């Protein structure tokens, strides 16, 4: 592997650890826990892993020299810092006992089932310290949820004499980690399962998990780009930039980027849903801001849009639900493209038809024609940034005819997703992930299963961070998935009464009118601590800083 | 202006200057020069500014305390470092004589004509040290080429007692700077004009100008993003990423990004033109690489595409030329969209019709229907990255039917332009621009006009850089522009026998087959010198390093 100068220099970075994890460790157990909802059902589904205490690590005088082999799995989309969870885990199990071995399962949970693995030795580990990506062992989206998968996995676990599996993933993957932990515990197999909280979207977050890893680096990378675009926007003074960022179900990324860069407009899906806004409401909101800025002579601006916003508009949600039903009708399958659209229009309710007709032709056509392998409308194919700018342009045209607007409107479009998912982790993510991996090793050494590794107090210097573990069942409730009630970890959406949103909401009118852009620049690994070592604004505000 | 932590810390950076510019300066003059082509014509057009010597600055014992006011103009698209040219110029004229004043003309050359200006005082200057963007005074695209503009400009020059105008711009703007210098010299107005070489595309480059500013920072920013995408690509192992980068007429950016990131494929427009490749040749080339990687089990990859590639394909160039003619026919104006396409098809030569029919429907439709205000085909609207991936998918489908390919192909698309034009300048661009501004001040103080400020030996440490000026006429020849022969600075395209291209060409077959990605990471301002202070690969290779 040919390396860049940054990678080579960065390999030498020694992530900072919480004080409690720097030497020998003992466990302090708290009170018994219960799930956030549906306690009875969750308890019944997880008799062996329900109700366990939260644990915290404390410095100890005597080292625990547990002999143990560990398996590690990366699950789902990439997030910066994944490799550091693995290096933290590796360093800690070797420190516990140099004979301990770490096995990586290849390309995600499927690697466990298919017995596709590699031993992660020191020379491999050293190649990946403080790097982005999941390419050390690859990731995958196979769901571990069936008994035959668990049993197949057990074969290789036995063969490699593995004591515990660590699964790095989002809400679904951690739920499955807990199902697996429960299964192995129920069977008395003596195999532990530990989860690690990863998601760029930032929606795996609760009282115990302050932030999920990768969010910090990804948001800073997107904010670098948004800031660069804002500066261009403010220099050329002739375009409105519509910038879509990752975040299908939660708008944490959009909100964090807005707090870092102060754009003219940022949409927040959760607010749109809560207020029951229509597509026209959103378009009007943007068009009015364009109009107001034009009146000040500013025919330019920036708009941040969360990827999933369209599905949060109640009227569009209803339309999509009915489209799925209409397109599933047997008669619909025989029609050519032209007939299909007529068929759809003939079967929509008046309300949905009105929404359908309000969409630009290309988007309506796409909704009526393109379906995914399950026959569903492909909402993710809609280029929301272009949809919105097109509709804003139409609205402004109308306002111009009415004499309400006399500016110029020209739009540019951007979408940032892949640009940040594999960025080299910021100091925060490098430290945080390394501490999570170290915690995972200690949870294993202390015999825990069905726990997620956690690190708290993360706006303080790393030295003062608090490491430990939380029972995964504690974060669960029952939700409907594909028609069935399932135990799941509750997704953390943007809270409209939380400090990050309120801070944004208190300033957005000024940002819309003025040009209050902030240009964060690229992530720095060396240099002043106020540049290199700050947590996200979201995290700081949530912790009252 | 609210500032980011990086901006605040970065404001304190003191750009490094060449030794000769650190104290008092004297001028060393070389031999008389001549233009790179059409000497007689250029000499006739520029009797007062032709044939002047190249000058180099040397340390002097006695300071030149010239009393002078200076005007500065930013022309054309943004490039990182523009503000540092201005701060370098400001610091140097104040050092020469604290009474000297600097005036910035607002929103480009139009500011001179319209008398729209602001005085740049120390407090304003300090806000913009080492920052990206052109927002200090804004930029514009008004061309200074008419006598009444020159005379109008003179009024405000006299009013502000300005001795010289500095114009920061690309090839066209510097040509116009020289026309202005010649005019003021011919009229004996005693007003000097100095140019500064700026272009992100990197096509303002020759024996005297080693690199134009902004190229370094922009390429590093794009390479950061391309590296992040490559790492994602190599972690998820399921997409081909088609990444378009800036560069309408030259592929320097694409080539530099390829040298930094080692993608599977990089197209170089100049090579495509030289080899007379067809669109099908390019598609086949990419499809074959996809096929070969699929045979190794690698259904993923990255392709870098220069923005202007489509216009370098000889067959497409011919088609566009004929389309422009056909669409200009009076009968064409009366037709509706449907008739228009039939009309176009009926009037194309067989050869052009075949090319037209080979294009995906949407692209063909766009070429036949969408015209710019001059009635020309809008090539820039074509999303080349999507055009190519669509055609590659079709080609692979055909290969699959013929049993030659059995992989999976799924594409993602990106376009990077605005993301890098206003990035905070790298140490290289911060130093280089500051030195250019300092040189410009010294050229003025030494009575020069019609010169471009230059800095050479730029792969050595800044201390050893050589600063001076070159007569703009030296870089000119006569070229046809809009039907007329005009004096212009010759654009520097990628040289196929130059070291950067040859280095790329020698490795690209391996890069196509293997996964040899390099992940450069974000620009660093603090940290090890091998990370923070390297010039571009293009510059290093051109200088044999």
Automatic annotation (TrEMBL), chains A, B:
Q: Which GO terms describe its cellular component?
A: cytosol
Q: Name one GO biological process term.
A: fructose 6-phosphate metabolic process
Which positions are annotated as binding Mg(2+)? 171
| Compartment list | Cytoplasm
What Enzyme Commission number(s) appear in the record? 2.7.1.90
Question: Is this entry keyworded rRNA-binding?
Answer: no
Highest taxon, organism lineage? Bacteria
Q: Give the binding site residues for diphosphate.
A: 77
Per the UniProt record, one Pfam family is: PFK
Q: Which cofactor does it need?
A: Mg(2+)
Q: Which residues form the active site?
A: 201
- Molecular-function GO term, any one: ATP binding
Q: In which pathway does it act?
A: Carbohydrate degradation; glycolysis; D-glyceraldehyde 3-phosphate and glycerone phosphate from D-glucose: step 3/4
What residues correspond to the site Important for catalytic activity and substrate specificity?
172
Give the family, as the similarity comment puts it: Belongs to the phosphofructokinase type A (PFKA) family. PPi-dependent PFK group II subfamily. Clade 'Long' sub-subfamily.
Protein's recorded name: Pyrophosphate--fructose 6-phosphate 1-phosphotransferase
- What organism is recorded for this protein? Xylanibacter ruminicola
């Amino acid at each position: 592997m040919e390396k860049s100068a940054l990678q080579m220099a960065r390999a030498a970075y020694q992530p900072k650890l919480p004080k409690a994890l720097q030497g020998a460790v003992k466990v302090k157990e708290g009170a018994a826990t219960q799930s956030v909802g549906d306690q009875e059902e969750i308890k019944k589904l997880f008799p062996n892993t329900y109700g366990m205490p939260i644990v915290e690590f404390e410095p100890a005088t005597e080292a625990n020299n547990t002999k143990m082999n560990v398996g590690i799995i990366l699950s789902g989309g990439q997030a910066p810092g994944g490799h550091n969870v693995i290096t933290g885990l590796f360093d800690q199990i070797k420190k516990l006992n140099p004979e301990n071995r770490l096995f990586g399962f290849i390309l995600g949970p499927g690697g466990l089932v298919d017995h596709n693995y590699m031993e992660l030795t020191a020379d491999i580990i050293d190649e990946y310290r403080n790097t982005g990506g999941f390419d050390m062992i690859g990731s995958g989206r196979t769901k571990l949820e069936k008994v035959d998968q668990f049993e197949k996995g057990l074969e290789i676990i036995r063969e490699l004499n593995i004591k515990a599996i660590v699964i790095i993933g989002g809400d679904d993957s951690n739920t499955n980690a807990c199902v697996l932990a429960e299964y192995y515990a129920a069977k008395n197999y003596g195999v532990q399962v530990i989860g690690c909280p990863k998601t760029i979207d930032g929606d795996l977050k609760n009282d115990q998990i302050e932030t999920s890893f990768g969010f910090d680096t990804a948001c800073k990378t997107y904010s670098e780009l948004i800031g660069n675009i804002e500066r261009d926007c403010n220099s050329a003074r002739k375009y409105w930039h519509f910038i879509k960022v990752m975040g299908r179900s939660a708008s944490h990324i959009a909100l964090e980027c807005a707090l870092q860069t102060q754009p003219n407009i940022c949409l927040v899906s959760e607010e749109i849903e809560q207020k029951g806004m229509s597509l026209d409401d959103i378009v009007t909101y943007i068009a009015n801001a364009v109009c107001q800025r034009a009146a000040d002579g500013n025919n330019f601006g920036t708009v941040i849009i969360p990827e999933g916003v369209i599905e949060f508009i109640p009227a569009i949600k209803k339309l999509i639900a009915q489209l799925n039903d209409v397109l599933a009708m047997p008669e619909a399958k025989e029609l050519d493209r032209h007939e299909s659209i007529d068929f759809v229009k003939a079967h929509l309710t008046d309300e949905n038809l009105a929404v359908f007709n309000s969409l630009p032709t290309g988007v309506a056509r796409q909704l009526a024609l393109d379906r995914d392998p399950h026959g569903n409308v492909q909402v993710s194919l809609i280029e929301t940034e272009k949809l919105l700018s097109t509709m804003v342009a139409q609205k402004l045209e109308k306002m111009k005819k009415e004499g309400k607007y006399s500016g110029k409107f020209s739009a540019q479009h951007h979408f940032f997703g892949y640009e940040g998912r594999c960025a080299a982790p910021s100091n925060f993510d490098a430290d945080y992930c390394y501490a999570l991996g170290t915690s995972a090793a200690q949870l294993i050494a202390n015999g825990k299963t069905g726990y997620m590794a956690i690190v708290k107090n993360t706006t303080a210097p790393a030295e003062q961070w608090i490491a430990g573990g939380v029972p995964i069942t504690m974060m669960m409730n029952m939700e409907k998935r594909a028609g069935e009630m399932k135990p799941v970890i509750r997704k953390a959406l943007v809270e409209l009464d939380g400090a990050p949103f309120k801070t944004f909401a208190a300033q957005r009118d000024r940002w819309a009118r003025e040009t209050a852009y902030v240009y964060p620049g690229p992530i720095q690994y060396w240099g002043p601590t106020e540049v290199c070592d700050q947590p996200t604004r979201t995290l700081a505000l949530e912790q009252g800083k």
